[in-house]
């Protein structure tokens, strides 16, 4: 399987097909029994999860995993400060360089919040905003982290049509900025509207790989997906 730079790839298939396993392999939480995982031509097989994250792989979980007691601003700041953070000893002394770094992060966070329409919610606790808004916070955190490959697990689940459109627009904006997006999604209408390419998985194997309309028109895949076969 290959994820091409700058595209939106959707992984689809019946439950147990291996979609989440692919995400676990890509982000380093699971080591493959055979084969390799490469990022931009670099072999990252077996690297710990935090190392792969620093190389530019960001993941949005279905349960979002926000810091509920923190503000929207601080949730994004945690992800945005990785490249600006200093050692603990230097941070405690708070030298001028640290203060400058903090101001730079604050400015970047404000820009990210405005981009995702979250500026007015900056001071709100993450567990006190709507579910759709929490999804936007999760996307904003990944953008702030400067990840180049975004793994999004059911980004539109639990949302109504207008909220889904908001998430679709946000994801398209990320791809327009040159980021690579891979989604696991069961909403086929959303996949048609969003994905450049679809990879159909079943029992750990790739059965089809191509444009959404081409994959969805294959009757034998529909039988596998809906259990009619």
Task: Spell out the key features of this protein.
alpha/beta; Rossmann fold; six-stranded mixed β-sheet; two-stranded antiparallel sheet; 8 strands; 44% helix; globular
Characterise the protein shown here.
This protein has helices at 19-27, 49-54, 72-80, 88-93, 96-115, 131-144, 161-176, 188-194, 212-216, 219-226; strands at 8-12, 38-39, 42-43, 57-60, 149-153, 180-184, 197-202, 205-210. With 229 residues, the protein is of the alpha/beta class. The protein has a domain at 1-56 and 147-229: P-loop containing nucleotide triphosphate hydrolases (Rossmann fold). The strands form 2 sheets. The chain has a 6-stranded mixed sheet, sandwiched between helices. Helix 7 (161-176) links the parallel strand 5 (149-153) and strand 6. The longest helix has 20 residues, at 96-115. The protein is globular. 32% of the residues are buried. The model is unreliable at 83-89 (pLDDT under 50).
Q: CATH superfamily of the domain at 1-56 and 147-229, please?
A: P-loop containing nucleotide triphosphate hydrolases
Question: What separation lies between the terminal Cα atoms?
Answer: 25 Å
CATH fold field value of the domain at 1-56 and 147-229: Rossmann fold
Q: What is the highest CATH level, the class of the domain at 1-56 and 147-229?
A: Alpha Beta
CATH architect. name of the domain at 1-56 and 147-229: 3-Layer(aba) Sandwich
Helix/strand order: EHEEHEHHHHEHEHEEHH
What is the multimeric organization of the chains shown? single chain
Main pleated sheet = 6 strands, mixed
Strand content: 15-25%
Principal-axes shape call: globular
| Spatial sequence of strands, sheet with the most strands | 4-5-6-1-7-8
Instruction: List the total number of helices.
Output: 10
Number of strands: 8
Q: Structural class, please?
A: alpha/beta
Helix content, binned percent: 40-55%
User: Unreliable stretches, pLDDT < 50, 5 or more residues?
Assistant: 83-89
Overall pLDDT level: 89
Integer-rounded radius of gyration: 19 Å
């Amino acid at each position: 399987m290959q994820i091409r730079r700058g595209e939106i790839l959707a992984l689809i298939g019946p439950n147990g097909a291996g979609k989440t396993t692919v995400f676990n392999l890509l982000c380093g939480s699971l080591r493959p029994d055979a084969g390799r995982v490469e990022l931009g031509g670099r072999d990252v097989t077996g690297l710990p999860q935090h190392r792969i994250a620093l190389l530019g792989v960001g993941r949005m979980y279905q349960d979002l995993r926000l810091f509920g007691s923190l503000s929207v601003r601080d949730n994004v700041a945690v992800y945005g400060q990785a490249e600006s953070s200093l050692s603990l000893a230097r941070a405690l002394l708070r030298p001028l360089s640290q203060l400058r770094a903090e101001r730079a992060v604050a400015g970047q966070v404000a820009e990210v919040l405005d981009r995702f329409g979250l500026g007015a919610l900056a001071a709100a606790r993450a567990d006190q905003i709507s579910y759709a808004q929490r999804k936007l916070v999760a996307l904003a955190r990944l953008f702030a982290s400067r990840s180049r490959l975004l793994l999004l697990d059911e980004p539109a689940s639990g949302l109504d049509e207008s909220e889904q459109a908001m998430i679709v627009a946000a994801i398209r904006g990320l791809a327009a900025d040159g980021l690579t997006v891979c989604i696991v999604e069961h909403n086929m209408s959303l996949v048609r509207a969003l994905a450049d390419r679809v990879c159909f998985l079943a029992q750990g194997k790739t059965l089809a790989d191509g444009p959404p309309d081409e994959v969805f028109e294959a009757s034998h895949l529909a039988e596998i997906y809906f259990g009619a076969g």
